[in-house]
Design a protein that fits this description.
This protein has about 350 residues and is mainly beta. Helix content is about 5%, strand content about 55%. The strands form two sheets. It has a 14-stranded antiparallel β-barrel. Strands 6-7 form a two-stranded antiparallel sheet.
């Protein structure tokens, strides 16, 4: 069994962060559109988008926290609404595991958004989105260790924990909204700004029967794509989130270099980094080819936990597939990519 003093030290450092019960987050927030802002639903250049993300964090000091999500969305009624407008629908699922599986969270959500063109050419759009989720959280006592069960010989599961929980399974509905403004500056560049508000009704959740409500989460994000030369673009993005007394600020960017200038599906290599204020530096590499974009980051921990973690945070993988538009010569959206 690991040294008890080391375990207690780790708990004292991690405890306050865990107790805030904040939402799961991704370093590649730009690659998980439907967990960042419901207004992203349907807003991309293609007929369908499928996105998946996987994150493993804190494996260097404890059992890792695992978060995964998958989503699919598309735009509909193309021949009914204004040709410069976009009406999107989507579905999202998220899995989150902490405490070595002691606490499991599962989310399933549906979302819709409408993006209205603000000019005759559709160079500027304003989108509003809504999302409804069903949340299920479960405690698994077989994977939890309580203080009363730590004896002179270490952990003894036969010793009663002394803990009483009213519920070990919680299920509730949740509601989120968002807006997204996007503007095309030139043929190959755009800027965007978005905001979202999660947990509108602040649903109640407690395993002890207490009146404990989830704090609403406010997210403000923005960025853009800026051409440097015919084969190189620079992509920048930033995010600010606030939930209860916790805040998170991320910013950074990546260069995109065209390595195969196929007129329909060019191959692009990406390299850059994002920075999470007072927490982590996240170098990023990615590759886009044949409708797929794969991204990889690794968090270099620079917070107060860096001594225990040896600067190791979490590895994260993202995969996005865009089904090409059936009419590639038609309207092309210049949408947020990072």
């Amino acid at each position: 069994m690991p040294n008890l003093g080391k375990l207690l030290s780790i708990f004292l450092v991690l405890g306050p962060a865990i107790s805030r019960a904040q939402d799961p987050h991704f370093s590649q927030f730009f690659a998980s559109p439907l967990t960042l802002n419901p207004a992203y639903t349907g807003f991309f250049n293609g007929d369908m988008r499928v996105a998946a993300n996987y994150r493993s964090q804190w494996s260097s000091i404890s059992t890792p926290f695992i978060t995964g999500t998958v989503s699919a969305d598309m735009d509909i009624l193309k021949n009914v609404i204004n040709p410069n407008d976009v009406f999107g629908v989507g579905i999202m699922a998220l899995y989150d595991q902490t405490g070595g599986g002691g606490l499991l969270e599962n989310y399933v959500g549906v979302s819709t958004a409408y993006h209205k063109a603000l000019d005759v050419n559709g160079q500027q759009t304003l989108g509003l989105g809504v999302q409804v989720t069903l949340v299920q959280k479960r405690l698994d006592f077989s994977k939890l260790v309580f203080e009363n069960q730590l004896g002179t010989e270490g952990f003894d599961p036969s010793i009663p924990s002394g803990e009483t929980f009213t519920n070990t399974n919680i299920t509730y509905s949740d509601y989120n909204v968002g807006m997204l403004y996007n503007a095309t500056i030139q043929d190959n560049s755009n800027v965007y700004f978005g905001a979202s508000y999660y947990h509108i009704t602040q649903p109640q959740e407690s395993f002890l029967g207490e009146n404990n409500r989830i704090h609403s989460r406010i997210s403000i994000h923005g960025g853009g794509a800026f051409p440097i030369n015919p084969t190189t673009n620079f992509y920048a993005s930033g995010l600010f989130m606030k939930q209860g007394g916790a805040t998170e600020t991320d910013f950074g960017g990546a260069f995109g270099l065209v390595v195969d200038n196929d007129p329909v599906a060019p191959t692009v290599f990406f390299a850059g980094s994002w920075f999470r204020w007072n927490d982590a530096l996240s170098p990023y590499v990615g590759l886009e080819t044949k409708g797929f974009r794969v991204g990889l980051t690794y968090d270099v921990n620079i917070s107060g936990l860096s001594a225990a973690s040896n600067y190791r945070g979490g590895i994260e993988l993202s995969v996005i597939y865009l089904k090409p538009p059936a009419n590639p010569t038609g309207k092309r959206l210049h949408c947020p990519e990072f």
